[in-house]
Design brief:
CATH superfamily of the largest domain: RNA polymerase sigma factor, region 2, helix turn helix motif
Structural class: mainly alpha
Number of helices: 8
Order of helices and strands: HHHHHHHH
Radius of gyration: 17 Å
Strand content: under 5%
Helix content: over 70%
Length: 168
């Protein structure tokens, strides 16, 4: 038996918000994106409800909404703090060092272009392969590899620069 929209939303809201927060690096923007998407899903539930891969369909809607978000200042400015994502990191021996490093990485990721950030998140957070990411982002697998390569190069260069500064 098919879920009603209310059952679908109630069962998945936490996962959708966590997914959107990881994608946007901003819990407030994530809430806005998920809310916009769920409003659209509710209106189209007769068509979306019977889909066999409706969870993937809704995640793609979230990605598309995030990539096209233009109406808010939050689309251009990412919050410096990411307390909602603190649970995602693994603790290390020195808690202060781990928190500092995690915050630095989050700030670096937040500065990446949107498609690069989305490709990284889909690869390393959702464990998707190139073909799945390409389908979700609406580009070729080669473009996905390019986005990920450029993002990782940027993160490495920034990390090396921060390490040199810390050693001075």
């Amino acid at each position: 038996m098919l879920d009603t929209f209310d059952q679908f939303a109630a069962d998945r809201i936490d996962r959708l918000l966590r997914f959107a927060t990881a994608l946007t690096c901003d819990p407030h923007l994530a809430q806005d994106v998920v809310q916009e998407v769920l409003v659209r899903v509710r209106h189209k539930w007769a068509r979306i409800g019977p889909l066999p891969a409706r969870d993937q369909y809704v995640r793609r809607m979230i990605i598309n909404e995030y990539l096209s978000w233009r109406r808010r200042k939050a689309a251009r400015t990412v919050a410096a703090t990411h307390s909602t994502l603190d649970e995602l990191g693994t603790p290390s021996a020195d808690h202060a060092t781990a928190v500092t490093e995690r915050d630095a990485i989050r700030r670096q990721i937040a500065r990446l272009p949107r498609k690069q950030r989305a490709a990284l998140m889909l690869r390393y957070y959702c464990d998707r392969d190139d073909a799945e990411i390409a389908e979700l982002l609406g580009c070729s697998a080669g473009t996905v590899r390019s986005h990920i390569s450029r993002a990782l190069s940027t993160l490495r260069a920034t990390h090396q620069h921060l390490m040199r500064e810390a050693l001075r």
